[in-house]
């Protein structure tokens, strides 16, 4: 079964790498990766903070949603200076989240539903309360060089030590913190309570491999490696990084410098290569990496290539970085973002699409609630692996957090006048399950962050019961992407204008689908035949649509005229084209 179109642009599924001894089609290619921030998913003991038992309790929800890969943000032992990304024990569970036994039960339950479990591993640094750091502070062997230490450049007129260089941390201010115990500075890419491990020390590399092995031996299905581009710095600590002419925060902001000496060093890829080889001794394990890079070529380095594989995929943050507000969302811009990834993708590698995460403004708040369904259609139905941040399936929005309620150290470091520009708290608020107290997230008297005031109408239960909802659209999309037309099919763009983006997913002898997105802030009537780069039939059947469209004309199951297709602002439509005999 074929369409009538003469495809002017098509992208087939990427071929399997020749080196791979894995499954022909790895499980993560057809899976949705669903990120859970454990503090905010479900609280089972009433302390106001989510826990592992809460995630386990929602296994049926994830299964029904169509999620087959669960990615867990860190739940390891931590003093919580950066809410779990400052780890004091990489191979245990922090009591606030439960125990190793609770994790084993989570893993067993998810696997019983054929849901894979991927962990967030943070190799770049530990907590300053980790035993390794405390022993390094005392210069105990073999830990003395487990971290990056440096002598002062000198001393100022007050006798205070001067850092060895101008390097800055992402949390604002110098990346160097002085410790009297050693009479040296230690380096931290992030918060001062997150000292960077010294990966030039082979013992550190072995320690981290053992961390990976501990969890892999326990049965996890893969890892997401956090903050990877910061793993190494140049050895010459006398080098200052170049200053960007940027007037703000007295040059204490990370973006006031270029970072040629502290990011993406060649040694980083050597370590990643070693991890890849180690993980390939286990069957069918996934490596995802996190690196925000302005230059797409720097991101692509984390894939490796056909003969030298590294990550299965580095996270594709382009839809976050380039869609910062409503006016950024146009068909032309989206097409350019998609093309940029595909055009730079190494041969044999697999794409991915990310709309949000625990560090970013939620997509509904960033670009508008009207685009929730359309952008889910885009990420779930393009070739590649979509990554969904918890709550995106119901269109959760950011929450206003007062200075007094601010928990995020990143935001806190910028003070009461600027914290809202940097705080990550607004996107980390509790999952909205129902209209009961605390949105059904906790039976306790309070929650670690406030619940959004809209929880009584915007919640999972209400959307399950509604005739049409974001959640039901999402479930339809999750089901559709399992069909061969999406799982194995090709991609062709039909319409690309500032207002409208339309693409076709097709495969010989399979149904053909047309996805149409009105990305403008106005209702439009579009003649797809007039704009189309492909030959289209006169009409098509509606499979699903954005919940903002209440018309009978575009209701699921109806036929629509492709010469006069009415779309409300921000609407997405998934259409099935009729079969055409050759």
Structure in words:
The chain is an alpha/beta fold. The chain has 17 helices and 23 strands. The protein has two domains: 28-125 and 202-474, Glycosidases (TIM Barrel); 131-187, Oligo-1,6-glucosidase, domain 2 (Alpha-Beta Complex). 24% of the residues lie in helices and 16% in strands. The strands form six sheets. Strands 13-12-11-5-2-1-15-14 form an eight-stranded parallel beta sheet. The longest helix has 17 residues, at 202-218. It starts with 32 loop residues before the first strand and ends in a 5-residue tail after the last strand.
Question: How confident is the prediction overall: mean pLDDT?
Answer: 93
> In total, how many beta strands?
23
| Structural class based on helices, strands and sheet pairing | alpha/beta
- Structural domains: how many: 2
Radius of gyration computed on alpha carbons? 25 Å
Strand percent estimate: 15-25%
Number of helices: 17
Strand order of the largest sheet: 13-12-11-5-2-1-15-14
Tell me the distance between the termini.
8 Å
Most strands sheet: 8 strands, parallel
Low-confidence stretches: 1-8, 14-21
User: How helix-rich are the residues, as a percent range?
Assistant: 10-25%
The level 1 CATH classification of the largest domain is: Alpha Beta
What characteristic shape results from the CA principal axes? Answer: globular
CATH topology of the largest domain: TIM Barrel
Any idea what the CATH architecture of the largest domain is? Alpha-Beta Barrel
Q: State the fourth-level CATH superfamily of the largest domain.
A: Glycosidases
């Amino acid at each position: 079964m074929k369409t009538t179109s003469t495809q002017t642009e098509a992208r087939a599924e990427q071929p399997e790498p020749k080196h791979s001894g894995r499954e022909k089609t790895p499980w993560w290619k057809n899976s949705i990766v669903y990120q859970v921030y454990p503090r905010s998913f479900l609280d089972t003991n009433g302390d106001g903070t989510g826990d592992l038992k809460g995630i386990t309790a929602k296994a049926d929800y994830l299964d029904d949603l169509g999620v087959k890969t669960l990615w867990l943000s860190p739940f390891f032992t931590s003093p919580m200076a950066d809410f779990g990304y400052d780890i004091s024990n990489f191979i245990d569970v922090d009591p606030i989240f439960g125990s190793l036994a609770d994790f084993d039960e989570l893993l067993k339950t998810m696997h019983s539903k054929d849901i894979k479990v991927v962990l967030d591993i943070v190799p770049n640094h530990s907590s300053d309360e980790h035993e390794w750091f405390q022993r390094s502070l005392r210069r105990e062997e073999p830990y003395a060089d487990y971290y990056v230490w440096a002598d002062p450049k000198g001393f100022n007129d007050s006798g205070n030590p001067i850092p060895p260089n101008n390097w800055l941390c992402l949390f604002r201010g110098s990346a160097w913190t002085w410790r009297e115990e050693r009479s040296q500075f230690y380096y931290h890419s992030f918060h001062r309570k997150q000292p960077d491990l010294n990966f030039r020390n082979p013992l550190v590399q072995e320690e981290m491999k053992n961390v990976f092995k501990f969890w892999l031996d326990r049965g996890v299905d893969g890892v997401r490696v956090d903050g990877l581009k910061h793993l190494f710095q140049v050895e010459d600590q006398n080098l200052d990084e170049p200053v960007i002419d940027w007037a703000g925060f007295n040059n204490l902001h990370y973006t006031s410098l270029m970072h040629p000496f502290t990011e993406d060093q060649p040694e980083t890829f050597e370590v990643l290569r070693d991890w890849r080889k180690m993980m390939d001794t286990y069957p069918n394990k996934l490596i995802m990496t996190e690196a925000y890079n302005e230059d797409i070529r720097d991101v692509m380095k984390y894939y490796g290539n056909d003969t030298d594989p590294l990550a299965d995929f580095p996270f594709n943050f382009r839809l976050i970085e380039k869609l910062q507000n409503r006016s950024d969302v146009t068909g032309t811009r989206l097409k350019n973002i998609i093309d940029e990834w595909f055009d730079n993708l190494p041969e044999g590698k697999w794409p991915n699409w990310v709309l949000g995460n625990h560090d970013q403004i939620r997509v509904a708040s960033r670009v508008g609630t009207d685009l929730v369904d359309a952008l889910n259609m885009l990420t779930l139905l393009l070739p590649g692996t979509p990554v969904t941040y918890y709550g995106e399936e119901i269109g959760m929005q950011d929450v206003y957090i007062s200075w007094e309620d601010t928990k995020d150290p990143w935001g806190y470091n910028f003070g009461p006048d600027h914290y809202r520009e940097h705080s990550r708290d607004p996107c980390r608020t509790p999952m909205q399950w129902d209209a009961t107290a605390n949105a059904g997230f906790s039976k306790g008297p309070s929650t670690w962050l406030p619940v959004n005031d809209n929880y009584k109408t915007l919640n999972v239960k209400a959307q399950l019961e509604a005739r049409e909802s974001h959640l039901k659209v999402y479930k339809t999309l999750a089901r559709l992407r399992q069909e061969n037309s999406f799982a194995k099919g090709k991609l062709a763009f039909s319409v690309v204008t500032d207002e409208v983006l339309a693409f076709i997913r097709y495969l010989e002898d399979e149904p053909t689908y047309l996805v149409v997105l009105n990305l403008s802030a106005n209702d439009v009537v579009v003649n797809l035949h007039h704009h189309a780069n492909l030959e289209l039939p006169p009409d098509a059947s509606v499979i699903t649509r954005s919940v903002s469209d209440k018309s009978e004309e575009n209701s699921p199951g109806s036929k629509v005229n492709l010469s006069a297709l009415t779309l409300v602002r921000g609407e997405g439509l998934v259409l099935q084209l009729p079969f055409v005999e050759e």
